[in-house]
Amino acid sequence: MTGDFSLPPRSRLVSAANVVMRGLHKSGLVPEIDLDVQEMCELARRQTGLHDFGDPWFLEPLQVLVEALEEEAALNTLGRFAATGQFVKIMRERLWAQHWFDSEPEILAEPLAPPVIVVGPMRSGTTRLHRLLAADERFEHLRFFETVCPAPRPEFRPGGRDRRPREAGRLLSTVHRLNPRTAVIHPTGPFEPEEELGLLVASAWGMKHEAQWRVPSYGRWAENEDATPAYQHVARLLRLVRWARGSTSRKPWVLKTPQHMLDLPALMRVFPDARLIFIHRDPARVVGSSCSLVWNQMTIHSDKADAGWIGQQWLHKTKLQIDRMQVARSRIHPGQRIDVLYRDMDADWLAVMKRVYAFLDMDIAPAVPGMERYVTATRSEHRWQHHRYELSSFGLDAEAVRHRFERYMHAFDLLPADAAPSFDLRPAGARKVPAHASAQAQPASAISAS
Q1: Could you give the CA distance from residue 345 to residue 147 in angstroms, rounded to a whole number?
Q2: Whether the Cβ atoms of residue 37 and residue 67 lie closer than 8 Å to each other
Q3: Apex CA 186: angle with CA 88 and CA 200, to 5°?
């Protein structure tokens, strides 16, 4: 992207919320909770009257994350309140989930059909592709309130009153009020299709934390750990969500979250028969959009968000996502995977989806009306809203970023039509366009999920 653009100032509401929160803590009306894992565990146990968190593996990533928050994140008062609240909520929901697993053993006894999983870097168009698939009633998909609040309270009964949509709606509304730009970057609602990010957060796992807080030591630690226990818990929670719906469906789940780029071996251990749809986008756009998202989230939680640091961090993180994906995907049977391009989705989303459905060996015709409704609604909702960002705001240059990803861009023909780098991504002779790529880059359509 080009043109004059500077990072927007932080919302005045965030500054006001910090003042109010300090006053509430000082008056004792809102007790301040220490960022201490054991203290938060005990608080969750007292609040729920339950004691079993299930697999204790989550305590290790949580401990590493808490230490990183204390030492690196420079949390403001609101950020600390949000962090402790999020962790105690996670613990309550793990207690509730284990309560359901113990009291309703049929939940875990039910098998999961092999899922269809969208895999791509953060800000590569995974949301759009996921929501197009979610428009097909032959798939199951998570709704926002189910990924934010996957475990209902013990008094819940399938088919009865459910407090979770309202709770999720309040949380979403608060975030959007604190920074309205987050609603443009990733529009959603309590009942909208949503990624399983919250099911990984239930194990204190994933890049979501790095996109919210400055916690580099947690990120480096997680990059070297086996994520299998976190994905095993995701599978348990998917069964719980299905049971809470009162559903006996055996439809396959359609899933997606950029975290899978780092964790493909663990993902495939837990879902060995999954079919994967890889989506690829110009890395300069991916990095720029990622930095913008992180900046807009981090400024809520810290008064010291550093745009230059965010630029370097998400350049590293995007490179790691892509490098690990390229290694891991080579070990996945070609019959289980397909590649699509972001620019092809912009040019002709229906043509891309026809390819996807041929790969899935499914008739696309029943899904097209729902997909068209989604596209029409998205065009209407975001006609006047655009996610604007500049790489230069984060100390980065598009050509230099593309240099870092030269092999990846060559493998998937990702050089955009408006780019003119000093290096040549083409082999000697005429460039051969891969079968998964469009013959020519096309202008972006009106739908945007970047």
Answers
A1: 26
A2: no
A3: 35
Q: Which of 343, 354, 359 is nearest to 412 (CA)?
A: 343
The partner residues of 256 in beta bridges, in order of sequence, read: 118
CA distance 94 to 58: 10
Q: Which of 202, 168, 232 is nearest to 96 (CA)?
A: 202
- Return d(Cα 101, Cα 88) in angstroms, integer: 20
Cα 441 to Cα 344: distance, rounded to the nearest angstrom: 7
Show Cβ contacts of residue 216 under 8 Å, excluding neighbours closer than 6 positions.
Answer: 68, 72, 210, 313
List the one residue out of 255, 275, 260 whose CA is nearest residue 134: 255
Q: Could you tell me the pTM of the whole model? A: 0.86
* Token pair for 50: 């339950």
Alpha-carbon distance of 274 to 224, in angstroms, equals 24
Rounded Cα–Cα distance for residues 243 and 378 (Å):
30
444 - beta bridge partners? Answer: none
Q: Are 300 and 15 in contact (CB under 8 A)?
A: no
Q: What is residue 384's three-state secondary structure?
A: coil
* Coil vs helix vs strand at 193: strand
**Tens place of pLDDT for every residue, the chain, 450 residues?**
444 446 766 677 777 887 888 888 888 888 889 999 999 999 999 999 999 999 999 999 999 999 999 999 999 999 999 999 999 999 999 999 999 999 999 999 989 999 999 999 987 889 999 999 999 999 999 998 999 989 999 999 887 788 888 887 787 777 766 656 555 555 666 778 999 999 999 999 999 999 999 999 999 999 999 999 999 999 999 999 999 998 778 899 999 999 999 999 999 999 999 999 999 999 999 999 899 889 988 988 999 999 999 999 999 999 999 999 999 999 999 999 999 999 999 899 999 999 999 999 999 999 999 999 999 888 765 544 555 778 999 999 999 999 999 999 999 999 776 554 444 433 333 334 344 433 333 333 333 334
Report which of 232, 92, 217 is spatially closest to residue 152, judged by C-alpha positions: 92
- Residue 150's alpha-carbon distances to 84, 165, 210, in angstroms, are 19, 11, 21
- Angstrom distances, CA of residue 285 to CA of 123, 278, 391: 8, 17, 8
Residue 337's SS3 state is strand
339 forms beta bridges with: 278
Token pair 């593309």 in the structure block, residue: 402
Q: Phi/psi of residue 118, each to 5°?
A: -85, 130
